[in-house]
TrEMBL record:
<comment type="similarity">
    <text>Belongs to the class-I pyridoxal-phosphate-dependent aminotransferase family.</text>
</comment>
<keyword id="KW-0032">Aminotransferase</keyword>
<dbReference type="Pfam" id="PF00155">
    <property type="entry name" value="Aminotran_1_2"/>
</dbReference>
<dbReference type="InterPro" id="IPR015421">
    <property type="entry name" value="PyrdxlP-dep_Trfase_major"/>
</dbReference>
<keyword id="KW-0808">Transferase</keyword>
<dbReference type="InterPro" id="IPR015424">
    <property type="entry name" value="PyrdxlP-dep_Trfase"/>
</dbReference>
<dbReference type="InterPro" id="IPR004839">
    <property type="entry name" value="Aminotransferase_I/II_large"/>
</dbReference>
<dbReference type="InterPro" id="IPR015422">
    <property type="entry name" value="PyrdxlP-dep_Trfase_small"/>
</dbReference>
<feature type="domain" description="Aminotransferase class I/classII large">
    <location>
        <begin position="33"/>
        <end position="382"/>
    </location>
</feature>
<dbReference type="InterPro" id="IPR050881">
    <property type="entry name" value="LL-DAP_aminotransferase"/>
</dbReference>
<dbReference type="InterPro" id="IPR004838">
    <property type="entry name" value="NHTrfase_class1_PyrdxlP-BS"/>
</dbReference>
<protein>
    <recommendedName>
        <fullName>Aminotransferase</fullName>
        <ecNumber>2.6.1.-</ecNumber>
    </recommendedName>
</protein>
<dbReference type="GO" id="GO:0008483">
    <property type="term" value="F:transaminase activity"/>
</dbReference>
């Protein structure tokens, strides 16, 4: 029997990394021993207090049942305290904080709550591929806004304002930006809020990278005056607290908007495992020492990844924030896909082609910092050995092509 897929999936393919990880697994099964610098899944453990809270709560006999759809008061309070301490944003934990099973889940919840056929969504190019996927699944029209090096990877709001925005309901934004590592300052975010207000667009700000290799204090969009009227913000403990597999995120903002999202979310899950919630409470209470220790490790790794990319002829832009390094592809390669494929085949190192994030990323690659220094040094050695072998072959071919005397 043939069963057709729903039309909502017509434009949505399998997530790139889902396919790529299968390919890498097959290569490793054949003995390739690939070094994966593609995905930003932190390899470092959480703070010991976090795992202690998890195990202590898991030992309680009443910890294993269904949980509330809004999370425990303790978790919502910890999230609100986190926003007050780090961003200077006051939130009502009862109504303005909604815990999530990861912020990726939150993107779908927000899209399914507010979008329908006929609506349009502004998404960044380049940007996280899930932004496009959730819009398409909801039947909304995707409208890309360009980000490029010439504009500092920030949208040209004046140019956007000259377009027909009458059907635009949501605008997805992400700063510090992934994949480019660009941080947005308060003056830009202020202009963004005013743009949304003028055009009656709901901003959805995806903000998981502000604590990683950020030399300035992290910023919440909700700290901008007037933002609460036009914006929701997603945040996550995946990168900042090494809890990627634990799936702990949050959506914060206006109470009425969160109540609408909860109407959808409550039909999709049965709450977060209580030990994970208690562990998240412990994680959110960590202070500056935790982030400094984390960033000390990432700074050392960043130097090695930059050296590796430069060995490939790529030149990363300075001042990048987050778990990745974004770099332009040298002229010897047509695009990031070509360079990625060549490095995978020749050096057994995988780096992400920038084109998966949109057409404006085609001339770039992205490399992750989520490998130990020993692995990054091995990756660098493989790249240098590969390059040396290529140079030797070219020299041999050049010698062989010379006329014999």
């Amino acid at each position: 029997m043939q069963v057709s897929t729903a039309s909502r999936l017509a434009q949505t393919g399998e997530y790139y990394f889902s396919r790529k990880l299968r390919e890498l697994a097959a290569l490793n099964a054949a003995g390739a021993n690939i070094i994966n610098l593609g995905i930003g899944s932190p390899d470092l453990p959480p703070h010991p207090s976090v795992t202690a809270a998890l195990t202590a709560t898991a030992a309680l006999p009443n910890a294993h049942g269904y949980q509330g759809y809004q999370g425990t008061p303790a978790l919502r309070g910890a999230m609100a305290d986190f926003y007050q301490r780090h961003y200077g944003v006051a939130l009502d934990p009862a109504t303005e904080v909604l815990p999530l099973l990861g912020s990726k889940e939150g993107l779908m919840h927000v899209a399914m709550t507010f979008l329908e056929a006929g609506d349009a969504v502004l998404i960044p190019n380049p940007g996280y591929p899930t932004y496009r996927a959730v819009a398409e699944i909801c039947g909304a029209e995707v409208r890309e806004y360009d980000l490029n090096a010439a504009t500092g990877w920030l949208p040209d709001l004046n140019a956007l304002a000259q377009t027909d925005l009458s059907r635009v309901k949501l605008m997805l934004v992400n700063y510090p930006h992934m994949p480019t590592g660009t941080a947005a300052d308060v003056p830009f975010l202020t202009r963004l809020v005013e743009f949304a207000r003028q055009h009656e667009i709901l901003l959805v700000h995806d903000n998981p990278y502000g604590f990683v290799l950020n030399e300035t204090p992290p910023v919440s969009l909700l700290a901008v005056p007037g933002a609460r009227e036009v914006a929701l913000e997603l945040n996550s403990l995946s990168k900042s607290h090494n809890l990627a597999g634990w799936r702990v995120g949050m959506l914060v903002g206006r109470a009425d908007l969160l109540a609408a999202v909860l109407r959808f979310k409550s039909n999709m899950d049965s709450g977060m495992f209580l030990p994970v919630q208690q562990a998240a409470v412990a994680a959110l209470a960590l202070g500056p020492d935790w982030f400094e220790e984390l960033n000390t490790t990432y700074r050392a790794r960043r130097e090695l990844v930059i050296e590796l990319l430069r060995a490939l002829g790529c030149e990363p832009a300075p001042g990048q924030v987050g778990l990745f390094i974004w770099a332009a592809v040298p002229a010897a390669f047509v695009d990031g896909y070509a360079l990625s494929d060549a490095v995978l085949a020749g050096a057994r190192v995988f780096i992400t082609p920038g084109g998966i994030f949109g057409s404006n990323g085609e001339g770039y690659v992205r490399a992750s910092l989520c490998q130990p220094e020993s692995v990054l040094r091995e990756a660098l050695n493989r790249v240098n050995t590969w390059k040396s072998n290529i140079q030797e072959r070219h020299a041999e071919q050049s010698e062989a092509s010379r006329p014999q005397k």
